[in-house]
Each structure stands twice: as C-alpha cells, then as structure tokens.
Specification:
The protein is mainly α and about 270 residues long. The chain has nine helices and no strands. The longest helix has about 35 residues.
Length: about 270
C-alpha cells in the first residue's frame, strides 16, 4: 500500500513536469528555466503552491497572486500521469520495461494535450519517441545476442525497424486514400475545403502511428488505428448536437486507443482472431 502511494506521488510529480512541457514546447520555450510561473500574470509559483494536485485544491483552482482561474488541465495531467505510472508499475514492477513504457506513456500525454490546444504538435516529439524506441531495441538486441544464436529476423532491432516501416506505411496509405476521397467530395460539392482542412489525416498522425508501432508492435498499432474512431465518436456526437466544429484534435483519441491496445489489445484481438 505504501509502495503504491509513493509511486502515485512520484507519478503526479512527473505529471507536473509534463505540464511544463505541454505549455512551453509549442512556444519554443525552455523547459528548464525559468521556474514555474503563472501563465496569466507571470508571477513565479512558490514551491508550496506547486505541489501536484494538493496545491490546486488548497488554492481552490485560482492563482494566489492574480486570482485568475488555473486551467483544469494542470491537475488533470498530474492525475492521469500518476494513474498511468501506477498501472505500469503494477504491470511490470521496477524493471527496464517500466521505464521504457513510462517514457512512451509520457509522450502520449504530452502530444495529446498539445494537440488539444493547437491541433498540431512539434514534429520532433514523435521523432524523439522513435529514436528512443529504436535505441532501446539496440540494447535489447545486445542482450538477446548474449543468450541466443543470432537470427537476423529475430533480432529486436530488426523487428522494431520493421514495425516502424509498416506503421508509417499503412497509416500513410490510409491518409492517401482519405485525401483522395476528400478531394473528390470537395470537387463534387464545389468547395475548397472543410472548415479550412483538405486532409483526412495530418502528417503528425502518420509520425505518431510510426512511434506507436515502434513501442507496441504493428499488430497492436493497427488495432489502435481502428479503435481510435470509436473514441472520437463521443466528440462527434457532441459536435453534431451543439453544432460545434467538426474538426477534432485526433491524437488524444489515438493515444486513448494506444493505451487500450497496450493493456487489453491481445484480448480484443482474441475476440476476432482465434
């Protein structure tokens, strides 16, 4: 019990750092300096006002200096991160895979919330994830070769590279056909765009799916691609009812699908492929 509480606290602290990344990376600001500050009045946040989750409750969701409301995103990111870290610790224990997927899940959180705010993400984030995933597979390959007779096709690095190529490939293929369909639709309706958009998927989504395939494999990545629309339906229904924009930040739904595939993907696939 105490161990779980400690992991939760550390996860929430890590989530606080992810909040810094979410706020600063799209603006090309340093994530190291200056220390945390109120985004509205720019007043530096003192340590006792920066305790994950707790300070938000004590301050009743308002900045101590300017009394402006603190975005609900901040405690939400801390809570989500803490729960994900706890789930990974329960799944793997304190093993190398715990750290590998903690990094992956952290990237999912960061790109999702940046996409919510900007409908785009810094392109380098997914490439950092891909680089880390490939580097990790090199380390796994070295360990594999210490205890197994080398088989080129069985090497973790080769498998990971294949997953990356297939992840990029099948996502870009769907993007190509989706873009063709939208072009035909716009020509038929004699419109230039749908709310300013002419693409079915952004290239950021393609990069993201390549990263997902590196970490969880092409089989589960394909499942992610087909699960994500079911998560997006929730917003789509909301948009239809309240006549909001039909353009949605898609990475949060891909991330939710990636988490679902990671924890329950094999069981879901088992329902269809026995």
């Amino acid at each position: 019990m105490i161990e779980s509480v400690i992991v939760f606290i550390l996860g929430a602290c890590w989530g606080s750092f992810l909040n810094v990344c979410i706020h600063r990376l799209p603006k090309d600001l340093s994530i190291v300096k200056p220390f945390s500050f109120c985004p509205k009045c720019k007043t530096p946040i003192l340590w006792y006002d920066n305790i994950p989750l707790v300070s938000f409750l004590i301050l009743r969701g308002k900045c101590r200096a300017c009394k402006e409301r603190i975005a609900l995103r901040y405690p939400l990111v801390e809570l989500i991160t803490a729960l994900l870290i706890c789930a990974l610790y329960r799944h793997f224990g304190l093993t190398p895979n715990f750290f590998k997927f903690s990094f992956f899940f952290s990237l999912l959180v960061v790109v999702s919330f940046i996409d919510i705010d900007y409908h785009a993400i810094p392109v380098y984030l997914c490439f950092i994830g891909i680089a880390v995933g490939l580097s990790w597979s090199v380390w796994e390959t070295v360990r594999y070769m210490e205890t197994n007779i080398p088989d080129p096709l069985a090497l973790p690095f080769v498998k990971t590279l294949k997953n990356l190529i297939l992840g990029f490939g099948f996502t870009y293929l769907f993007k190509f056909f989706g873009d063709c369909f939208i072009s035909l639709y716009l020509s038929w309706r004699k419109k230039e765009s749908i709310e300013g958009e002419k693409e079915s998927l952004g290239l950021g989504d393609v990069d993201f799916m390549g990263m997902v395939a590196v970490f969880i494999g092409i089989k589960l990545a394909a499942l992610v691609f087909f699960l994500a629309p079911f998560f997006a339906i929730i917003y789509s229904v909301f948009a239809l009812i309240f006549k909001r924009s039909h353009l949605i930040p898609y990475l949060p739904y891909l991330s939710a699908a990636a988490l679902t595939a990671f924890f329950w993907g094999d069981k879901i696939l088992g329902l269809f492929f026995r």
